[in-house]
Sequence to fold (383 residues):
Amino acid sequence: MNETPVVDLDDDSEGVRRQVRDGVLSAPLPGPGPDLAVVRARGRRRRRRRHAAQGTVLTAAAAAVVAIMVGVVPDRGDVLVAGPPTAAEVVNGLGRPAPATGPEAVPDVAFSTDRPAAVTAQAGTGRYLGNDDLARYWVTTSLADGVCGVRARVDEGSTAVGCSTVEQFLERGIRGGEVDGDELFEYVVVPDGFDTATLEADGYSEALPNVLTHTSPYPVTPVETPR
Amino acid sequence: MPRLRRLAVAWCGQDVHRADDLVQSALERVYASWPRVARREDALAYARTTMVRVLVSERRRAWWSRERSTDRPPELPGLEPEPEGSWDALSAVSALPPRQRAVVLLRFVEDLSVAETAAVLRISPGTVKSQTADATATLRRRLRGDQQDEQEEIRR
Fold:
């Protein structure tokens, strides 16, 4: 007869200690773990910010971000994307409460350039990449040339849903969870034709095996960056 | 990184995504300080200390209480952890108060001494001891309860 071995926990704390240790060390670790490309990008930004705060270094990228921050106050629900220092891109409407289905659920994506856009969404992981105190309304992450990290703001009371494909992402707008208040979610926008091997070489696809690339079938409207 | 993830997972219970976010935040800080960290022989210990402090500080952030991630987002095949026996201990640990949780993880899993744990958490050695005792008592009660239930199940 098979009986589950029982640790004698009354002897001392060693049983508890062993059980906790074994439990933690043997716990499955599903998924690839944190996105190392994002870690690098944010780490660089964090370092730049620290230097800027020290008054020693204000990089061109940081200067662009500051210019945007002081010049623009986005409306609630708008998402302002500051990509590489040479390009400012605006994505409108992603922060609206997303209808669950139907063509009206497609967010109005507009870029400041007339190039078609592809969206590489961090779809399927069901997680967002986190927040930081700088990019509450806009995005500062530049993961690679022409690749922007995007943060979408979710209005209070809206319900975001998980998406496992980019198509679902575009249909439903924002993935994530039920949100009580303002919250930020991220995905990645890349130019059409962007070689995702670059991301792969940067450890991106390794970290996010569910990253999907999608050329948006929806019209891309040139817009001006708000001043 | 697996070691850091395990600590974070144990901290967050079964919410692996949140654990990964926390590991990511810790690694960002380590990255930003890398020129200094790289000169140290105990870079891993530095990263661990950073993460524990991130864990504690993240707990205080406002968004923590405002956002409720869905426990089972749709369309996530293969990404959710499969509950196994090992989650029993994890669940018990993750239900501890934050400081007790940190003490337990550092002492039981990372094998830090009382003094080392106190240094990481910036608390006194006496507090580490008392927190360890309280946490151990709670864990003993919970884990023993589970085992007793299991034994009774087997007898039936």
User: Anything to note?
Assistant: Residues 116 and 123 of chain A are 20 Å apart (CA to CA). Chain A touches chain B through 58 residues (CB under 8 Å). The mean pLDDT of chain A is 40.
